[in-house]
Specification:
The structure holds two protein chains of two kinds. By secondary structure, chain A is an alpha+beta fold. Chain A contains 33 helices and 34 strands. In chain A, helix 13 packs parallel to helix 33. By secondary structure, chain B is α/β, with parallel strands linked by helices. Chain B has one domain: Cupredoxins -  blue copper proteins (Immunoglobulin-like, Sandwich). Chain B is built from one helix and eleven strands, in the order H-E-E-E-E-E-E-E-E-E-E-E. In chain B, the strands form two sheets. A six-stranded mixed sheet of chain B has the order 1-5-11-10-7-8, with no helix packed on it. In chain B, strands 2, 3, 4, 6 and 9 form a five-stranded mixed sheet that branches. The longest helix of chain B is centred in the first third of the chain and has 23 residues. The interface between A and B is large, with 51 and 42 residues.
């Protein structure tokens, strides 16, 4: 028999119920123990509301308004669903069919142009998730916004069902899944139909609490945890430091006659009493850590400090309370050692925590850049919505001084935008219709509207954050040795300490036990595995973070390490050295024609052509505001040029070969055209009615910073090589202008990788800089591929370094940064190897036979604390990295 | 050599040998990730070490690792899977899910930020 649980409203089988209770002659069945317990405590409450509880499952019918797009009529609801993955108009038909097949759908039309489905359906019969299923079964995805809400107060499994069901009934909710484990609901919905508040209300109405979860919350929690941890450490340190003072004074009775008058054992008991709180409170983490690691057959820094201080304390304890065990000369206590070591290590940890926090500042700053809200236009009205609710295609309004919420393309208005936080470029960029804007950048003056193109995890900021995070998880190959060593380090140090003890006990001077114990403790304390472990990761964190600040994304430790070893760098000409956008540089008119007329005439002819050089001519005429006539009888002569009629005159436009084939006399301009070619420009001849009228020179202008960038690359010691598909004459001219000595010209796009390989065979470690799709194989072939400009995803994928701003000087900066980071890592690794390999033998007393020098364990602990702080601080120096011009 | 010195030497050497055996030679137990609906899931408690720390999974199937850090000691606050390019902070007393897709057979180490606490993901065919 089917029954309803009176507590949670779940429908269950009476046979399979978890339990049942009888109340006032009625039987009640329950899905879980907790529901049964609730009922037992207050049955009246649930019986009386029993009839309404089933109603609660269906939320109140939505208020329908024009704004939300709901029809006022009857129960028919109108829904607009964004669809992803429609690649052709016929897809629309497929989806329409699939929607219409759902019983309860009255009308369905799919618009391919705006990628949306419009559905009118009977809300009594079906819910929006049903429509979604139909779309998915046709093989397409819906483009709803995704929301995660934390839910508190879910006591049994049936709550999940109840909430999911209620959420799915809200028109506009496409999918709803509730995870009781993480106590959170994931809701896919159509933001134009629903406000966040409605979803929250629905959950609250069911009797649960909602909690905001967003990306910034866990991070705040992390920050709070770090702060709490820091405060705890600080309190531990304070106690240890304060108590260390009397313990230290008390350990030297010879300096204080009054104190010396107190019997020795009484003194020791007082010292013991002072040391115990230091051990139990301040030092507890070392002992707990030692034990926990020990259980896992591993040993770490805690083990060294725990065993070291523990040994000193236990010896002192025995000498204090069981002096009979020791001969007179061995009765000694080391309470001061125990307490001071703990205090010093703690202060080291405090400083280290502070410094370590700073290594990840760059990425935290990047994450903090994300705008929280956006002003979007929906149904003709401007709405402030959380940035997570912005959809692709939304029109977003940005006012002066505001942060741009997501990536997109400007539709109307113009402004200047400060993009320095993403690109590292200090000068604000001008933006007008058609320009791309990047989320998280700041609008300066002027306001504009833009169409959202990338949202959520696809925005450039999210991509950058992801890439930097990934990079920071990697290691440089140079770390491998340190890793191998640190894996064996602690147990080896313990063995060394034991051996030291034996040697001092067997061969040392009297009192042997005391010396053996001191050296044993000192060896354990001085060894610092932390410095080894921190050496590379902290440098990479700071280095990659610094790169991101400058618009340089480095894929990881390996890329850093290879980049600093480069010997040659290949620059693709188009788009890397040059702007990649040809421009008319010279207009030379002949035979009485005005320069502007020549340009206008050429533009008229080229308007019908699709050649990139033609585009440059048209653009140039447009810029000058010239009136462009209409060409008739247009024909393109492949590889040569174009021909057409303008105002009754026959016009020819093209290269030398075209002119020759029409027997046009060129002798007046041959010198000029040769000069153009030598300057790296392409000459274009124009003839009107079989008579030469002039030459246009078109060139792809060199980027402003190319020359400087190439000089800087040469200063670093790299051989700079240009690669291009241009003819050798033009290529040579460009190379000469920017100061490049070696080049590969007339290279087909798919051959670029071959030339990179050729350089590698010459023994070069090659970096390749390129921007486009056809560079991807060459970027991948190179030891370090550097994608320049916002470029294509493929280029980014194939490259080790991405330069967000298309500036060539960033290549030099990136290589300098990699050199600086690698130098930093080497310093850290050398420092920590040197420290440990020098410190441990000295601590073991190797200098004692020769110079009588024996290290105090207190000095050892100070050195140990200082060493890891030094490593982190050294890494932080990288934050001050500045590229040398 | 005095008797006490002989005793100290011999027991010291035994102790050293014990340290080497305990930390290096002891064979640890492996645990296989549970396979539910195509996802291999396992809970790993983090408390001075990873429990379990040797995890066997199948190739080409999503692995969901639920790390639960049961301490505030900063040593274990970050877990790194260098081969999968994952570095994640583990907030204390909280579940942190790390999803990986092992596409190669082999043994892949994971460890804390300082490479002191170790675990291994063993990927089998």
């Amino acid at each position: 028999m089917k029954v309803t649980d009176p507590i949670c409203g779940m429908e269950i089988d009476s046979e399979g119920a978890m339990g049942h209770l009888e109340h006032k002659g009625e039987n009640y069945f329950f899905c879980s123990d907790s529901c049964m317990e609730k009922f037992r405590q207050n049955p009246e409450k649930y019986i009386n509301s029993g009839s309404t509880s089933s109603k609660e499952l269906i939320p109140e019918k939505k208020q329908v308004t024009a704004l939300t797009g709901f029809s006022n009529k009857a129960d028919y609801l109108k829904l607009e669903i964004p669809i992803i993955g429609m690649s052709c108009a016929s897809c629309a038909v497929t989806i329409e069919k699939s929607l219409k097949d759902v019983a309860g759908v009255q009308k369905a039309s799919v618009n391919y142009a705006n990628q949306r489905a419009h559905v009118v359906y009977d809300a009594q019969k079906i819910t929006s998730p049903d429509l979604l299923k139909a779309i998915e079964s046709a093989g397409y995805q819906t483009g709803g916004a995704v929301l995660r809400i934390g839910i508190k107060g879910m006591s049994c499994a049936s709550c999940v069902d109840k909430i999911e069901k209620a959420l799915k009934e809200i028109p506009g909710v496409l999918k709803a899944t509730v995870n009781p484990g993480t106590e959170e609901a994931r809701i896919e919905y159509l933001p134009e139909m629903i406000q966040l508040a409605e979803i929250k209300k629905t959950i609250k109405d069911l009797g649960y609490q909602t909690v905001q979860i967003g990306d910034e919350i866990p991070e705040d929690r992390e920050k709070m945890q770090h702060e709490a941890e820091y405060k705890k450490l600080w309190r531990k340190f304070l106690l240890a430091a304060i108590l260390s003072v009397p313990i230290l004074i008390g350990s030297f009775p010879e300096w204080f006659p009054a104190w010396a008058a107190v019997p020795q054992q009484t003194r020791w008991i007082i010292l013991f009493a002072l040391t115990v709180p230091v051990l139990l409170f301040s030092g507890s983490q070392f002992y707990i850590g030692t034990w926990r690691a020990f259980r896992h057959h591993s040993a770490d820094m805690n083990t060294l400090i725990g065993v070291g201080t523990g040994a000193a304390f236990l010896y002192s304890f025995a000498a204090t309370f069981l002096p009979g065990l020791f001969p007179q000369n061995l009765r000694n206590v080391f309470y001061d050692t125990t307490a001071i070591i703990i205090a010093l290590i703690l202060i080291g940890k405090l400083l280290e925590a502070k410094a370590k926090g700073r290594t990840s500042e760059a990425i935290k700053r990047l994450m903090g850049l994300q705008a929280k809200t956006a002003r979007v236009v929906r149904n003709g009205k401007e709405l402030d919505v959380p940035v997570e609710e912005v959809l692709v295609g939304d029109i977003v309004v940005v006012r002066p001084g505001e942060k741009i919420p997501v990536d997109g393309i400007v539709q109307e208005g113009s402004s200047t935008v400060d993009e320095s936080m993403i690109t590292g470029e200090p000068t604000p960029a001008k933006k007008s219709a058609g320009d791309e804007v990047i989320g998280a950048t700041i609008n300066k003056i002027g306001s504009f509207k833009f169409k959202a193109a990338k949202v959520g995890k696809d925005t450039m900021l999210s991509q950058i954050v992801k890439m930097v995070q990934e990079a920071q998880s990697t290691k440089a190959p140079i770390q491998r040795l340190a890793d191998v060593i640190s894996g064996y380090f602690v147990p080896i140090v313990i063995v060394t300490a034991i051996m030291t003890f034996i040697v001092w006990y067997d061969f040392g001077p009297a009192p042997q036990l005391t010396f053996a114990l001191i050296t044993f403790v000192t060896v354990l304390i001085i060894a610092c595995p932390c410095a080894l472990g921190l050496a590379t990761p902290t440098s990479i964190m700071v280095g990659t973070g610094k790169g991101a600040e400058n618009g340089i994304l480095i894929k990881g430790g390996e890329a850093l390490e290879t980049a600093h070893k480069l010997t040659a760098i290949v620059l693709d000409k188009t788009g890397t050295i040059t702007l990649g956008k040809p421009d008319v540089t010279d207009v030379v008119s002949l035979n009485g024609m005005a320069a502007d007329d020549l340009l206008a005439m050429s533009a008229a002819l080229e308007k019908s052509s699709e050649h990139p050089l033609g585009e440059a001519i048209v653009e140039s005429a447009d810029e000058k505001g010239l009136k462009i006539a209409k060409a008739t009888d247009f024909s393109a002569i492949p590889g040569l040029g174009v021909k057409g009629e303008i105002d009754g005159q026959t016009v020819l436009l093209g290269n030398l070969k075209l002119m020759e084939s029409y027997q046009i006399d060129l002798k007046d301009v041959l010198d000029e055209s040769r000069t153009f070619a030598e300057q790296g420009k392409t000459p274009i001849f124009v003839a009107v009615n079989q008579r030469l009228s002039g030459i246009l020179a078109v060139a792809d202008p060199i980027k402003e910073d190319s020359k400087e960038a190439i000089r800087r690359l040469k200063d670093i010691g790299l051989e700079v090589i240009m690669i291009t598909g241009d003819n050798s004459k033009t290529a040579e001219a460009i190379a000469k202008q920017v100061g490049i000595d070696r080049m590969f010209a007339e290279v087909l796009p798919n051959e670029k990788a071959k030339y990179v390989k050729q350089l590698q065979q010459e023994g070069h470690i090659v970096g390749m800089v390129g921007d486009g799709l056809n560079d991807a194989p060459a970027l991948a072939q190179a030891d370090v591929g550097i994608a320049i400009g916002t470029g294509t995803d493929v280029a980014m994928e194939a490259s080790e370094i991405t330069l967000i701003k298309g500036k060539l000087t960033s290549v030099a900066t990136a290589i300098q940064l990699s050199k600086a980071t690698m130098r930093n890592i080497r310093q850290n690794l050398f420092g920590s190897f040197f420290y440990n390999s020098l410190g441990i033998p000295v601590a073991a007393g190797i200098l004692y036979p020769f110079f009588g020098i024996l290290l105090s364990p207190i000095i050892a602990s100070a050195a140990m604390a200082a060493s890891s702080v030094t490593v982190v601080s050294n890494s932080l120096r990288l934050r001050r990295f500045k590229a040398t011009e | 050599m005095r008797l006490d010195q002989i005793i100290v030497s011999i027991s010291g050497l035994f102790l050293a040998a014990g340290v080497i055996w305990y930390f290096f030679l002891y064979k640890r137990k492996t645990v296989r990730a549970e396979d539910t609906e195509g996802v291999q899931e396992i809970k790993i408690s983090v408390k001075g070490g990873y429990e379990p720390d040797l995890i066997v999974v199948k190739k080409d199937k999503t692995v969901k690792l639920n790390f639960y850090r049961e301490e505030t000691a900063s040593c274990s606050e970050v877990v790194v899977f260098p081969d999968f390019r994952v570095r994640r902070e583990l907030p204390a007393f909280q579940n942190t899910v790390i999803e990986l897709l092992p596409d190669k057979v082999g043994e892949f180490d994971f460890h804390c930020d300082m490479n002191m606490i170790h675990g291994k993901l063993i990927v089998e065919e």
